[in-house]
Amino acid sequence: MTLPSPTGAPAPRRWRNAESPVLRAFARSRTVQLAAFVLLLVALASLFAPWIARQDPFDPAVLDLIDAFTPPGQQGASGAFYPLGADDQGRDVFSAILYGLRMSLLVGVSAVGLSLAIGVPLGLAAGYAGGWFDTLVMRVADVQLTFPVLLVALLIFGIARGLLPEGYRDDMAVYVIVAAIGLSEWVQYARTVRGAVMLEKHKDYVAAAQIIGRSRTGILVRHILPNLLAPVLVIATISFALAIVAESTLSYLGVGLPPTQPSLGTLIRIGQGFLFSGEWWILLFPALVLLALALSVNLAGDWLRDALNPRLQ
């Protein structure tokens, strides 16, 4: 029997104790355990990059040009050891990947946060209020869905860059790309939340809250929203991987982050120019890290979607 929560809404049963189906499913799945380990390793590596990296790869004062194109696992002419090799500027590829991870994760988390901040309130309001506001939000969402996410991000990025003074474009590049990706991803949250609210608002606990005089905002925030966290969390997990890939794609195309603010996409774009001249490691290792990161997040998102689905319990 599911007991009601103090707010009147059904308690989220799957999170109540350590014996929840979510934790049991995690203990049974070796795939998701491996994905979680990779994500934890990536997070720690990016967090402690200044202490793990041998050099700040984007500080020209610490680079040794005589070590340029040093193959992986060898020492450069200066005597420094490069486990993943060095690029054309003598940058340690391993150090560059650590710093690139920091920027990619920062953009991914910030873009998902912006999408949540836009999509969830719009979905709540549209689903609960209905009427012309619901129609307006959904028609805007439908129009945006007709365009690929990357195309929308490119459009927003181009407009924002055009409005900024030329001297501030590189300094504001991170904010611009976060806004471009975040504004292109809010639709999924709005549509999902709106559909869930339209089901929840007819339930008894919402009627009880209305009878005791709760405001619309109070009902949405304190009663309905807690019961929508599971689908929102699943979408956020998958959107996080999509945001990282979108940022890498934009940077690879040369319209994302500048070389002074490296991301995995920037490193891949730099390495692509040397792939056919024999310096394969400059491209390969950042690409493998991006692949592992995106795959791990997607695996975790798929597992979370199944684990939080009561029909599969």
CATH domain class name: Mainly Alpha
Sheet with the most strands?
2 strands, antiparallel
Shape: elongated
Radius of gyration: 23 Å
Low-confidence stretches: 1-7, 10-18
Average pLDDT over all residues: 83
Q: Count helical runs.
A: 12
**What is the terminal separation in angstroms?**
16 Å
Q: How many E strands?
A: 2
Output the helix-strand order: HHHEEHHHHHHHHH
- The CATH topology, please? MetI-like fold
Mind telling me which CATH architecture this is? Orthogonal Bundle
**What portion of the residues fall into strands of 2 or more residues?**
under 5%
Q: What is the name of the CATH superfamily?
A: MetI-like
* Strand neighbour order, sheet with most strands: 1-2
What does this structure look like?
This is Peptide/nickel transport system permease protein. Belongs to the binding-protein-dependent transport system permease family. Keywords: Cell membrane, Membrane, Transmembrane, Transmembrane helix, Transport. By secondary structure, the chain is an all-alpha fold. It has a single domain, classed as MetI-like fold (Orthogonal Bundle). The chain has 12 helices and 2 strands. Strands 1-2 form a two-stranded antiparallel ribbon. Helix 5 crosses helix 7 (173-200) and helix 6 crosses helix 7. The longest helix has 37 residues, at 93-129. It is elongated, with a radius of gyration of 23 Å. It starts with 20 loop residues before the first helix and ends in a 6-residue tail after the last helix. The model is unreliable at 1-7 and 10-18 (pLDDT under 50).
